[in-house]
Structure formats: structure tokens, C-alpha cells
């Protein structure tokens, strides 16, 4: 393995002998449960945790013949945009030395970019597959909410997140998506794409990677270019020119709600996180209070506090506190309810824009990769970098990030394409024309 700190656990988990992924390695983010193999979520809280069962996506990888070479490094519990908040140290960017790999699935993207795995799985709550794909120069797909089972994914913000593939090419990412997608009795939010699309071949995503965009209409939300870095915009428009040259047409669209999306996202994500992370109390999950420095006494509240003080990092604590605040009796209407209203507005805006366009295009990230260490002291700056990815999770839509050139200084730029619900084939088709 190369020295990018892409893996938290390197342990080969074999799959069945044949199947569509036989002979290939698929690295798995460390918040996806693997039976008998540690699943830490990048947190000291779960440093010793070994799940007794496989996540549904892991069972499907094994059945498809894939070998899992290990569990990849990530921002603690998926909370971050740079993969610097892991209790197991930061991940380096194999495509841009000295810069962050993006996050929170930075280990998965780095493993693919460095050739330490053929393919990888990440999870995307607000951009965590697409951002590292963009920063590391690989392909990442965030599926429609409900396409992929979340059973065995350790929840951060469950109404927003999906597991998604990372790969060197669109076709390989699409193929991996076909393996993990599909309804699951153990996740009641899953849907059958064949029923949703009326297409019996709905799961054959790889065949959609044919590069044929002749006649396709591409909407460009102006809100997602405002304030974006100049070098990023340059590469973005060059990619749109490419699509035009292949017979697609583009027009600008207005989605006024998008300027509020990142705020709404963080209120909802932190609220759900504060609830989902309540289980890490040293009783149900996490190191028991008796093993913390101060030990256990008879006060339960003090015991919980000790476990959380020792087990959670700064960013996780910040989010649990802010989420608890946003949900508290006096403030719920002011923050949480308002954020839900904004979420509904974002959904409506996307639906309208997708009536006049097959896909919507924007830079995946408004900025090139940060230098390592740069964003740790300024969480707000890091949150704002998620402006283009988070609206898609609020609207539960599918999106892909494909490489779209580099800045003058050689930093990877990613282009994001968003489609209608269960319209994975449209974004795969458009993406395959570019990468
Ligand atoms: N950067 C976003 C956050 O910190 C997205 C993370 C993710 O998708 N898991 O919440």
C-alpha cells in the first residue's frame, strides 16, 4: 500500500469465486459494517468496535466476487470536507501533494487515485463521495435516496445520505453502482429502480456510459457559479464546450433557493447527527466509562460525559452541541423547522429546473483542494465549500462528479451533473462523455 494513510484497517476480505467483480478490489469506507473486521468511523469512540454483521452493500460486494482490501480512512463519523478530522490521522492527496484529498470519504478516493484499490465505496451525506472524487481526480456517484441500502451504514444524517461508488472511470463507477443498488428488506427507505423508472434494465448502469449526449439538454444553475474560483470556472466552461461539441445544448437556469441550501443542510445534518450519535454513550456503543481516565462513579450523566469527552473529536462535539441546540424546545421552530421549509423549496426548484433540462451541471466544488491544515481553524469556511454538493442531498437526487481538467497549478477540478430521481443513467451518460 502507498503511504497516503488511505486505510485505517488493511485486511483482505475475500468474496465469492465468481461474479461480475471477480478479481477486482473494492475498498470500503470505515463507516460501513464488515463482519469480524473493525469499523471505526474514523473515531476513537469505535477504535475497538468489530461489527457482528455485514452491511447489505458488503454482502453484495462479496456475492459479486469482489475482494475488499481494507477499510478506508474518513473524517470522524463522516463530518468533514477534507479527511483531516479522523482519529487515525489525515489522508494525503495522491493527485496533489500537500493538499487535502477532500472528504469525508478521502481514504476511498485516495485509495482509487493511488491505485491501492480498483474501486471503492464511500458515503455521501452532503458531498462526501463527490468532493473527494473531485479533489483526487476520480469519478464518484451519489445515488438517488433509496436506491442503495443503508443497512449497516453507521448513520450520520440518515435522511440525507447514500452509499456511493468511486472509480477511475465512469463506466467502472456505474458497474459498481449496479452491484450495490436495489431494494433491501432491511432498509424500508429503499425503492426498486425498475418500478420507479418502468425500465426492466434499470440496474444496467454500465451500459449508459456510452458518451452519447447528442440532443441532451444541460441546465447550468447560475447560483452555483457565483463566487466560484476562477480557475475552476474556466475548466467548468471548457467541459460544457466539450458537451456542446458532442451535440448537447446548454442553458442557464435559476434556482434561487440554492443560496440557502448550505445553511439548511448544516442545521438538518447536525440535528440528525445529535440524535444518531446518542448511542455512543459507553453503554450501547463506545468505550465504557470505567476505561476512561477518570473512571466510572455512580453518576450516569458524568459517565456519559466522560465517554464522549474522551471518544469524540472537536468537530463531532461541535455538531452534536449545535444539533441539540437547533432541536431544543425554544429553538426548534426558529432553526429546524425553517431548515425543513428551505429543504422543500430546494426540492421544488430542482424539480422545476429538471423539467427543462435532462441534467444540471456545475463545478462539484467551488474551489480547488485546500492546502493541508488550512481549513481546520475555520469550520465555517469548510462548511461553505459544500455549497454545490449539499443541495443535491436535500433534494434526494442522483449526481456524479467527473474529472474536468486541472487548474494552472495542477490541482484537479471536478464537474458535477445532477439528474432527476432515479435518473442515474442520464448523469452517467453525460459524465461518460467527459471522462
Ligand atoms: N462535508 C459535509 C459535512 O461535513 C458532507 C459530509 C458527508 O457527506 N458525509 O457534513
Short summary of the structure?
This protein is of the alpha/beta class and 435 residues long.
Could you walk me through the main structural features you see in this protein, from its secondary elements to its overall organization?
The protein is of the alpha/beta class. It has 13 helices and 11 strands. The chain has helices at 56-63, 106-113, 130-136, 170-180, 193-197, 230-245, 261-276, 300-311, 314-327, 333-353, 379-384, 390-394, 424-432; strands spanning 7-13, 26-29, 68-72, 119-124, 139-142, 162-167, 217-221, 249-253, 359-363, 399-406, 412-418. An 11-stranded mixed sheet has the order 1-3-2-4-6-5-10-11-9-7-8, sandwiched between helices. The longest helix has 21 residues, at 333-353. The chain is globular and about 70 Å long. The two termini are 26 Å apart. The model has no long low-confidence stretch (mean pLDDT 96). Glutamine is lined by residues 78-81, 104, 124-128, 156, 269, 386.
Give structural attributes.
eleven-stranded mixed beta sheet; globular; alpha/beta; 32% helix; binds glutamine; 435 residues
List the helices and strands and how they pair.
Elements: E1 7-13, E2 26-29, H1 56-63, E3 68-72, H2 106-113, E4 119-124, H3 130-136, E5 139-142, E6 162-167, H4 170-180, H5 193-197, E7 217-221, H6 230-245, E8 249-253, H7 261-276, H8 300-311, H9 314-327, H10 333-353, E9 359-363, H11 379-384, H12 390-394, E10 399-406, E11 412-418, H13 424-432
Parallel strand pairs: 2-3, 2-4, 7-8, 7-9
Antiparallel strand pairs: 1-3, 4-6, 5-6, 5-10, 9-11, 10-11
Helix pairs in contact: 7-9, 7-10
Glutamine is lined by residues 78-81, 104, 124-128, 156, 269, 386.
Amino acid at each position: 500500500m502507498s503511504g497516503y494513510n488511505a486505510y485505517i484497517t488493511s485486511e483482505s476480505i475475500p468474496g465469492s469465486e465468481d461474479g461480475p467483480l471477480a478479481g477486482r478490489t473494492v475498498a470500503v469506507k470505515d463507516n460501513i459494517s464488515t463482519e469480524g473486521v473493525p469499523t471505526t468511523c474514523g473515531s476513537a469512540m469505535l477504535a475497538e468496535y468489530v461489527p457482528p454483521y455485514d452491511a447489505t452493500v458488503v454482502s453484495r460486494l462479496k456475492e459479486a466476487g469482489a475482494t475488499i482490501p481494507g477499510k478506508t480512512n474518513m473524517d470522524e463519523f463522516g463530518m468533514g470536507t477534507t479527511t483531516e478530522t479522523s482519529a487515525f490521522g489525515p489522508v494525503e492527496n495522491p493527485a496533489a501533494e500537500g493538499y487535502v484529498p477532500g472528504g469525508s470519504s478521502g481514504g476511498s478516493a485516495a485509495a482509487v487515485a493511488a491505485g491501492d484499490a480498483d474501486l471503492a465505496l464511500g458515503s455521501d451525506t452532503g458531498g462526501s463521495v463527490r468532493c473527494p472524487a473531485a479533489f483526487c481526480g476520480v469519478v464518484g456517484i451519489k445515488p438517488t435516496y433509496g436506491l442503495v441500502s443503508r443497512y449497516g451504514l453507521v448513520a450520520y444524517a440518515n435522511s440525507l445520505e447514500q452509499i456511493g461508488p468511486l472509480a477511475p472511470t465512469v463506466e467502472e463507477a456505474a458497474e459498481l453502482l449496479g452491484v450495490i443498488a436495489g431494494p433491501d428488506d432491511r432498509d424500508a427507505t429503499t425503492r426498486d429502480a425498475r418500478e420507479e423508472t418502468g425500465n426492466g434494465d434499470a440496474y444496467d448502469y454500465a451500459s449508459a456510459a456510452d458518451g452519447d449526449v447528442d440532443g441532451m439538454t444541460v441546465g447550468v444553475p447560475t447560483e452555483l457559479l457565483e463566487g466560484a474560483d476562477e480557475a475552476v470556472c474556466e475548466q467548468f466552461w471548457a467541459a460544457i464546450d466539450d458537451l456542446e461539441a458532442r451535440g448537447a445544448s446548454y442553458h442557464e437556469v435559476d434556482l434561487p433557493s440554492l443560496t440557502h441550501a448550505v445553511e439548511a443542510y448544516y442545521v438538518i445534518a447536525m440535528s440528525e447527527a445529535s440524535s444518531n450519535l446518542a448511542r455512543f454513550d459507553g453503554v450501547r456503543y463506545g468505550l465504557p466509562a470505567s476505561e476512561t481516565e477518570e473512571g466510572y462513579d455512580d453518576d450516569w450523566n458524568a459517565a456519559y460525559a466522560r465517554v464522549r469527552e474522551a471518544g469524540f473529536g472537536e468537530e463531532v462535539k461541535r455538531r452534536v452541541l449545535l444539533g441539540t441546540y437547533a432541536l431544543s424546545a425554544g429553538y426548534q421552530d426558529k432553526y429546524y423547522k425553517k431548515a425543513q421549509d428551505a429543504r422543500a423549496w430546494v426540492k421544488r426548484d430542482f424539480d422545476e429546473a429538471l423539467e427543462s433540462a435532462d441534467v444540471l451541471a456545475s463545478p462539484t466544488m467551488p474551489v480547488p483542494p485546500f492546502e493541508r491544515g488550512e481549513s481546520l481553524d475555520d469550520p465555517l469556511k469548510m462548511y461553505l465549500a459544500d455549497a454545490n454538493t449539499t443541495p443535491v442531498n436535500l433534494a434526494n437526487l442522483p449526481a456524479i462528479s467527473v474529472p474536468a481538467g486541472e487548474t494552472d497549478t495542477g490541482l484537479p477540478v471536478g464537474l458535477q451533473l445532477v439528474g432527476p430521481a432515479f435518473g442515474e443513467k442520464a448523469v452517467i451518460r453525460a459524465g461518460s462523455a467527459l471522462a
